[in-house]
Every structure is written in structure tokens, then in C-alpha cells.
């Protein structure tokens, strides 16, 4: 069986950048589609319609087939067939990576931020199906993560101003759960051995003074040779807009459990985390 790693997010925490780095690494077999959405399609009710989307992709690929069809269309067709087949037979998850894997690639993986929303049963399935894979989790300052997601998703809520949507997001279960690091980490540790879980801070990943050591440690965790990242800029960046101070204070209080948990369980935190933590009473 292949060795696997799974990136579980969180959303708006640099996972697209990391996925591009993995795609460029000669010893990593990384899914061309960064987010496979296999496990969340099984366990998250909101995501169970993903199969319909995959079938739609197959139909679109079929429409494009002709005698002059290029290899990319054929590749996408076969890839989407694997994604649909996985949902009826989990062994197709392994077959997909066997199909992708080249000589010299030591470990296979994907990154789907929705996986961080899984419950215990979902994480148990990941552990069993992939035979104790390595887990990668990126943490971002909770309020900054929330604000970035608000700006990104506002295209679906165009009738709301960003400030209004941010306030609304603090009462949206899905948004809050992505920032509830204490819940995500404790669920992981109840299923996986701690040595198989690698946690990165977004702020360190995109700090020019710490990026290299972060990637070195990550490569060591995955058992692959360090490759210097060629990507210097963030990817899939949300539209820029500054969060008002009063809204930041509101977010800090709402997400205080996440700040407090990370403060109590990690020795060194990025500076912007500490600035927010100072505003929380009893820490």
C-alpha cells in the first residue's frame, strides 16, 4: 500500500500555496485536483451532493470528446470517473493514486480543507482506509482567518457589506467550526498519534524569515528530501479590505476559546496571535 498524507486545512490558511508546492516536489505524488472531497462527501451532509458535481464534470468531458481530443480532456475524464467510483468503493481511492504515481515518488496525498470539519467517524475512516496516514493542519490567527473567509465568500452574499457579513459569520456554524482549533485538534488527537499530526502556523509559512525552516520540517515529517519553494507569493488571496478595530475585538471575544487553547498548548505563537490574546481576559 502507498504511504499517504492528508492536509485537512483549515480554510483560508495557505492550503492552495502548499498544494502547489507539493505538486512541484519530485518525491510527492499529489492529486492534480488539490481537493478530492472524498471523506467529506461521505460524512458531511452539506457535501453529499459532490457526487452530482463530479458526474456533471464527466458529462462535460464526454461532450468534448472527438477524434482530435487532447490528452488533458481524457485525463480529466478518467480522473472524474475515479472520484465518482470512490464513493461506491473506497478501494478506488488507492487505485486513483496508483494511476497517478510515478517512479521516485515516496508518498501520496491531497489537501481538502473541508476535512477539518469531520467528526470522529470521518477521522477514523481516514486512519483505517489509508493505514495511519500523516496529517497536516495549518492554523491561522482565528480572526484573520474568519475575515479572509468572509471576504472570499462575499461573492455569494453580495447584498451584504463585508462588515455585516463578518458579524453574521460569527454565528454561522460552518465558519465558526473552521476557527474552532480546540475542537479540530482534540478530535485529531483522539484518533491519530500525535507524532503523525504536523501543525503549521500560517503566519510562519508566509514569513520570509521562517518559511524555509517550516518547509524543511514539513519535508522531514513526510520523509522526503527538502526542496526549496519556488513559489514566493500567496495564492487564491481574498480581496483586500481592512477589518475595523471594534469588529476585531468582537471576533476575538467570540473566538476566545481557540486563542486560549492554542496559547496553552503551543510554546511559541506568531506575534499577531499574541497581540490578540492580550485583549482576552484571564489569559
List keywords for this structure.
five-stranded parallel beta sheet, Rossmann fold, alpha/beta, 52% helix, 15 helices, 283 residues, 8% strand
Structure commentary:
This protein has 283 residues and is α/β, with parallel strands linked by helices. It has one domain (4-277): Rossmann fold, CATH 3.40.50.300. Helices cover 52% and strands 8% of the residues. The protein is built from 15 helices and five strands. It has helices spanning 15-24, 39-43, 50-63, 71-86, 91-100, 120-129, 142-153, 162-169, 173-179, 181-191, 202-205, 211-222, 245-254, 256-265, 271-277; strands at 4-7, 28-30, 107-111, 134-139, 197-201. It has a five-stranded parallel β-sheet with strand order 2-3-1-4-5, with helices on both faces. Helix 6 packs across helix 10 (181-191). It is globular. The model has no long low-confidence stretch (mean pLDDT 89).
Strand order of the largest sheet: 2-3-1-4-5
SS elements, strand count: 5
Shape, per Cα inertia axes: globular
Beta percentage is 5-15%
CATH hierarchy, class: Alpha Beta
> Radius of gyration in whole Å, from Cα?
20 Å
Helix content: 40-55%
What is the helix/strand order?
EHEHHHHEHEHHHHEHHHHH
Structural class: alpha/beta
> How many separate domains?
1
List the uncertain runs: none
Q: Would you identify the CATH architecture? A: 3-Layer(aba) Sandwich
Please work out how many helical segments DSSP would assign.
15
Biggest sheet record: 5 strands, parallel
Mean pLDDT, all residues: 89
- Quick one: CATH superfamily? P-loop containing nucleotide triphosphate hydrolases
Oligomer: single chain
Amino acid at each position: 500500500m502507498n504511504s499517504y498524507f492528508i492536509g485537512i486545512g483549515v480554510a483560508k490558511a495557505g492550503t492552495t500555496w502548499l498544494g502547489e508546492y507539493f505538486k512541484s516536489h519530485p518525491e510527492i505524488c499529489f492529486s492534480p485536483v488539490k481537493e478530492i472531497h472524498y471523506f467529506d462527501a461521505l460524512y458531511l451532509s452539506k457535501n453529499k451532493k459532490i457526487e452530482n458535481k463530479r458526474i456533471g464534470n464527466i458529462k462535460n468531458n464526454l461532450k468534448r470528446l472527438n477524434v482530435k481530443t487532447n490528452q488533458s480532456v481524457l485525463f480529466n475524464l478518467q480522473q472524474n470517473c475515479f472520484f465518482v467510483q470512490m464513493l461506491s468503493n473506497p478501494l478506488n481511492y488507492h487505485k486513483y493514486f496508483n494511476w497517478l504515481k510515478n517512479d521516485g515518488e515516496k508518498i501520496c496525498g491531497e489537501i481538502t480543507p473541508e476535512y477539518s470539519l469531520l467528526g470522529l467517524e470521518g477521522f477514523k475512516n481516514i486512519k483505517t482506509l489509508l493505514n495511519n496516514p500523516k496529517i497536516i493542519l495549518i492554523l491561522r490567527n482565528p480572526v484573520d482567518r474568519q475575515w479572509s473567509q468572509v471576504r472570499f465568500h462575499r461573492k455569494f452574499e453580495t447584498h451584504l457589506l463585508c462588515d455585516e457579513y463578518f458579524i453574521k459569520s460569527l454565528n454561522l456554524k460552518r465558519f465558526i467550526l473552521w476557527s474552532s482549533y480546540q475542537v479540530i485538534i482534540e478530535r485529531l488527537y483522539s484518533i491519530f498519534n500525535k507524532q503523525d499530526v504536523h501543525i503549521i502556523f500560517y503566519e510562519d509559512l508566509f514569513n520570509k524569515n521562517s518559511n524555509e525552516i517550516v518547509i524543511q520540517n514539513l519535508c522531514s515529517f513526510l520523509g522526503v528530501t527538502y526542496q526549496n519553494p519556488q513559489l514566493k507569493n500567496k495564492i487564491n488571496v481574498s480581496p483586500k479590505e481592512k477589518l475595523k478595530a471594534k469588529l476585531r475585538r468582537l471576533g476575538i471575544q467570540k473566538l476566545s476559546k481557540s486563542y486560549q487553547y492554542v496559547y496553552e498548548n503551543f510554546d511559541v505563537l506568531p506575534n499577531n496571535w499574541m497581540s490578540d490574546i492580550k485583549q482576552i481576559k484571564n489569559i
